[in-house]
Amino acid sequence: MEIKEYLIREGITFRERGNELITHCLFNGCDDGSRGTEAHLYFNAETGQYECKKCGAKGNLITLAKHFGDNIPNLGNSTNKQPKSKFDAELVETCHQALPTHIRQYLNARGIIDTVIDEYKLGWGKFYGKWWITIPIKDIYGAFRFFKLRQDPNAGDKKITYPKGVEAQIYGWDTLQSDTDKVVLCEGELDRLSLLSKGIPAITSTHGAMTFKQEWCEKIGKGRKIYICFDNDETGKKGAQRAAKLLENTENKIYITTLPQEVGKGGDITDYFVKLNGNADDLFGKYEKEHPERIDTSQFKPLSSQELVKILGLTIKSDEENKIVTFLCELSAYTDNAQFNISYNAPSSTGKSYIPLEISNLFPNEDVMKLGNCSPTAFFHEQGEYDKDTNTITVDLSRKIIIFLDQPHTALLERLRSLLSHDEKEMRSKITDKNQKGGNRTKTVIIKGFPSVIFCTAGLQIAEQEATRFLLLSPEVSQEKIREGVSESVRKESDAERYSIWLEENPERKLLKERIRAIKLENIREIKIANFKRVEERFLSKNKILKPKHQRDIKRLISLIKSLALLNLWWRERNGSTITANEEDIEEAFRIWDAISVSQELNLPPYIYNLYQEVILKAWKDKNGNYNEGFVETTEVLGLSRQDIFQKHYEVYGRMLDTNQLRQQILPMLETAGLITQEADPNDKRRILIYPTLQLTISQDQRNSDDGGGVKNIENLSETKREDFDERAGIMQYEGGLTKEQAEQEALEEALDKRD
Fold first, then answer.
1. Distance CA 679, CA 658 (A)
2. What are the pLDDT digits (tens) for 657-697?
3. Do residues 360 and 370 lie in contact, with contact meaning Cβ atoms separated by under 8 Å?
4. How confident is the model at residue 459 (pLDDT cuts 50, 70, 90)?
């Protein structure tokens, strides 16, 4: 044995200088009055010879061992070898016998008593060129399989295995084979030994919080109370939930024990016992909650959409339909297949991310993922679990709410398209990582489940294949809403602490948060619609001319119906994990759909459709409304210049409109939707004029938008035709259940067809 190894074993601290080891004198108290790094006993690191520069004591490793009363055979250089590489019971015993006093004292300080240290053969050995605490791990049959190594506490807190590459194992099969009716599943071998020292049966996985295996569940036994107590950090919380989910169907009672915050971030069982002097009984009473959690549902009552609007209105002013639809979208995450997606499209600073983020505060934190613009590799690595054996990353998005605070990376969006369309509940994809040698390594990604997804983007243009996968929403930008928002901000920022207390203590908001947790715990799998014929007939009556996108629109409408039923599931017909939506849910869903359907039909964000109504139509009426029929017949209607639109926009909204945004995004989208046509000014071919299509029809001629879109003007209808048109539009509106604008558009197209 080398002198350095012996000093470490005996817990003697020293400092190194060149080939010398320097420590306080061990013989005559020469350094009792020494300060700082002052010391007088010098060792030769190679030969083990020593000399005290103060009292003159001299000797070598053998004489030093005799001084300490050690009787270790073969102390000479022939033992300067690390333990043999073969792992077996003999190596376990060798390392246990070599356990130095200072390491035993360290383990005692962590709450592990000597009888446990000896029973479980904790030891000390040199592996991979360093000294480690050795924790021998047995398999289910009681045979030693490997060491879990823990770094010398003076050097760090690294943990590895010996040999390398072994699979995760339960540390504590012996506990599960006993007749104990209570078991703690903890995170870490030393935590388990600390619990055993308190007389508490415990087990752990040897490879961390997220490595508990499904196949272990059937070996866990039945009729037990299993308390899951992991470290106080995000990984520990996720690992506890994951293990609880795996153990749900084992015919045991499952509890999750959450350590008090006083243990600190990342604090563990040992910190609870040692730092806080914690009471063992509190782990099984004060800090535990049954899984799945039970919530008293008698405190709830049927909740109408207007009552919901009122509660959401505590923090979100105006935006009634947006609030309801966003809430139902996030709530739909707790269904198996009724989730739907939202895209908030609006210019910067209009509050497009505020609504989904504010509503997400009502939902459990573990169910909400808030993401910026990330690549597919980053997304899958951060959200998934990597299995080294199969080289796969599994990303479980079931019952998750994903909020992208910016338009996702294009490549990520492409990979998520099938998921957003609910094509398959499990998809496989490939990503490529750089390996340590600079090359590429391919990994398989398995994506499971359907999440509820919300995009928030300042980009107004939407590719059609994206638009058909989302409900398009935009925050209101009215003066009234902005004024209310300013007042709320002043109140909040003036005293943030008081505002937060007021908000969190609001009884209706607290009850809504509790209601959401209760809905989640009900684990509803299927939501049926009793009167589905009513839904079909009403939808078709509102859409006389069907388009391919209506196949997805009807799915969104049905998702609204199902989400409304889920909100009031305790008052709906129920059979196991299936509930049935009633007429009330259908009527309410159609009311919401009618309020948002026009912009969905046109594939336009409401911001752009509202701009068309409030700015372009009003500017056009201002320009043409004062002219009589004779003037119009002579000169035709007057088109709008872009300057006319800028001026009207400022008049309506009190701010300037971005020139490039109007030219490159807004006008092309309106033209594609058939709401405007753009033509060259007859008096100046360099200038483009804009015409609303209330009196227009599509032409096959030239297109003048920056993206190549356009339509052509036609003659006004005659007075007689106009009367027929008004009468026909009224009939269509009444019989078809159409809005006034939809009826006028269909009547106009019908009249023009007859004229042609």
1. 21
2. 888 889 888 999 898 888 898 888 888 878 889 988 854 33
3. yes
4. confident
Instruction: Tell me the C-alpha distance between 3 and 41, whole Å.
Output: 13
Q: Is 681 helix (H, G, I), strand (E, B) or coil?
A: strand
Q: Name the residue among 373, 374, 397 with its Cα closest to residue 445.
A: 397
What pLDDT is attached to residue 230?
A: 96
Q: How confident is the model at residue 46 (pLDDT cuts 50, 70, 90)?
A: confident
Other CB atoms within 10 A of residue 204 CB: 27
Contact partners, residue 206, CB within 8 Å, separation at least 6: 137, 148, 161, 168, 169, 170, 171, 189
pLDDT in tens, 102-124: 999 999 999 999 999 999 999 99
CA distance 188 to 319: 49
Handedness of CA 559, 560, 565, 566 (dihedral sign): positive
More confident position, 540 or 70: 540
The amino acid at 35? R
Mean pLDDT of the chain: 84
| Residue 436 burial by Cβ neighbours in a 10 Å radius (0-12, 13-18, 19+) | exposed
Three-state secondary-structure class, residue 641: coil
Give the per-residue SS3 of 201-262: CEEEECCCCCCCCHHHHCCCCCCCEEEEECCCCHHHHHHHHHHHHHHCCCCCEEEEECCCHH
Look at residues 1, 121, 118 and name the one whose alpha carbon lies nearest to residue 70: 1
Q: Which residue type does 647 have? A: Q
CB 696 within 8 A of CB 689: no
360-364, 550-554, 734-738, 746-750: range with lowest mean pLDDT: 734-738
DSSP 8-state class, residue 640: B
Q: What is the DSSP letter of 409?
A: P
Query: What are 144's strand-pairing partners?
Result: 138
What single-letter amino acid sits at 288? E
Task: Give percent of the chain with pLDDT exceeding 70.
Answer: 86
Q: Which residues contact 476 (CB under 8 A, 6 or more apart)?
A: 318, 319, 322
Q: 123 with 96: CB under 8 angstroms? A: yes
Pair 339, 332: CB distance under 8 Å: yes
Residue 575, pLDDT score: 94
**Amino acid (1-letter code) at residue 161:** T
pTM of the model as a whole:
0.66
Cβ atoms of 203 and 171 closer than 8 Å:
yes
Among 181, 156, 172, CA closest to 212: 172
756 vs 715: CA distance, rounded Å:
12
CA nearest neighbour of 601 among 696, 742, 740: 742
Indicate if the pLDDT at residue 22 is higher than 60. Answer: yes
pLDDT at 29: 81
Q: Is 690:676 a contact under the CB 8 Å cutoff?
A: yes
Write b or e for each residue in 157-188: b if 16 or more Cβ atoms lie within 10 A of its Cβ, otherwise e: eebebbeeebebbbbbbebbeeeeeebbbbbb
- Say which residue, 45 or 326, is predicted with more confidence: 326
Distance separating alpha carbons of residues 103 and 134, to the nearest angstrom = 11
Which structure tokens are listed for 650? 């400022």
* DSSP for residue 617: I
| Residue 29 host element (H or E) | none
- E strand segments, 411-480: 426-434, 440-448, 452-457, 471-473
- pLDDT interval class at 461 (50, 70, 90): low
Could you tell me the two tokens for 364?
Answer: 């459990």
- How many Å apart are CA 244 and CA 242, to the nearest integer? 5
